[in-house]
Amino acid sequence: MKTGIALDIREIRKTFTLSHSGAASLKTALLWWKKANREKLEVLNGLTIQVKHGECVALVGRNGAGKSTLLSLISKIYKPTSGEIVVDGRIAPLLELGAGFHPDLTGLENILYNGMILGLSRKEVLERTPQIVAFAELETHIDTPVRTYSSGMQARLGFAIAAHVDADILIVDEVLAVGDYSFEKKCYDYIDEFRRKGGTILFVSHNPDSVRRVADRVIWLAKGQVKMDGSVETVLEAYLAAGEDR
Amino acid sequence: MLADLKELWRFRELLWAMVERELRIRYKNSALGFLWSLLNPLVTVAVMWSVFTFLLGNNTENYSAYILAAYLPFLFFNMALMDSAQSVLGSLNVVKKVYFPREILPLASVIGNFIHFVLALGVFFMFLFGVWAFTGFQVAPFTWRLVALPLLLIPFFALVVGCSLLISALNVFYEDVKYILSVFLYLLFFVSPVMYFSETVRSALAGRANGALIETLYHLNPVATFITAFRKVLVPPGRIEIIQDGVAVKVPPAPFDYTMVGVACVLSFVLMVYGYWVFNRMKWRFVERP
Question: How confident is the model at residue A120, as a pLDDT?
């Protein structure tokens, strides 16, 4: 079990360039005189957060507050405009379950490639495949192409793979409400178990119940900055109260 | 760039897995599997050979083998570029959700196609054996020249890697790129010696003013130069029929042009480094494409 700072987010800024033309084309690139008035959108401005090992932090905030952008930055999908993120340990990003499944490949083949995309070695994936299949409860379908799966089955398989990456830090973006009731319970059991082992979780949720259920610290993001940071009840109440005002 | 290479090396196992995935997906839904990929070049060559031999009356020796030796590398170039153009854009949903070195996507397309190409070369040798047997075992097709084959495959591979890194990165931002690419590849077929010979070009240009200059320009196209080089390495020299002053004559093939092949090799490696540099500059913006 690790101790100390798991995630050190220092003065992170992220600016996106807005485009109004829709589809990308050479035409827009060649119209250089129009570039001057391109709009910039500052999603995160100077965000500083520290998360200790073993903490479970929920991010709340309105749409466009920068929650998902922050998770993507931590997962190394974006490069920050300025600032620095120091990560101690292995990250499992659960930003979208089953992203990268190929519909024509079987469940088994997708486990291999998805697991490797998530950072496991081939040997590690092969060792864990039986557990993953059992966790996803897909024993009977594992040799059929993923395109024949229902969306719930795909999400289950996606969660099962991500759950077996052996990460120190889970980055979760509203993906826990997948599958049926019993699978949801399994997911929560997994998260409890993960936390017991000292894992760190950073997750985004719009559901106050799941925040109360899992988190022990809540960070309220507004306009790309930390508006409030503290215990679950204080921050969540303030956030919900602010929502009711509108 | 060195840091990027190091990171790529760290993910090498994923690269091989992606190559494997690429190959698996391609044959997943077809019972004939690998045979399909051979059917295309073999049928194309059969048609070209019939047209040139029967309809146009050309009597070049080993003509079908000559075409196949040129068409296989051309097809590799063509397919690898078309596949890699879509490689990043087609996987954008993964790129947006999971981190891994993005160059793995076009590289997997290129390596997957390269493996095809090498397997197809194996079939080419069987074909060559067939031609040899058919012509009564006259000119032995398997000679020491084949030792030079890997020396030719490496720079050609570098050329394809360079082009595909450039194209895959550009295609993310400008979707016109793949349309331009398909027209470009179509036209490239005609300005590269696949259906005809570089010897034909030389004899056609021989009497002209600036003929030598035009021939050099023609061979500055690395695909043209490599294709001619592949021919010289793969096929035993048979006499080539060309039209000289309105009369068909058979001439022996021109010697291997070391200078032009050297230029093409340098060009290829420069293009590979440049392509990787451009790709690395653009790869962080893939997820932010407008």
Answer: 87
Contacting residues of A for B95, CB less than 8 Å apart: 77
Domain ranges, ordered by start, for chain B = 2-190+271-288
DSSP labels for A36-61? GG--EEEEEEEEEEEEETT-EEEEE-
* Structural domain containing residue A88: 5-245
Can you tell me the mean pLDDT for B204-208?
A: 83
- Residue pair A34/A7 in contact (Cβ under 8 Å)? The answer is no
Closest CA to A51 of A32, A79, A33, A70: A70
Residue A226 DSSP SS3: strand
Closest partner residue to A109 (CB to CB) among B24, B174, B175 is B24
Q: In the A/B pair of chains, how many CB contacts fall below 8 A?
A: 85
Total domain count for chain A?
A: 1
A1: pLDDT strictly greater than 80? no
Average pLDDT (B262-275) is 96
In Å, how far is B33's CA from the nearest CA of chain A? 14
Please say if the pLDDT value at position B104 is more than 90.
yes
Is B98 close to A21, i.e. CB distance below 8 A? no
| Closest residue to B98, CB basis, from A21, A100, A104 | A100
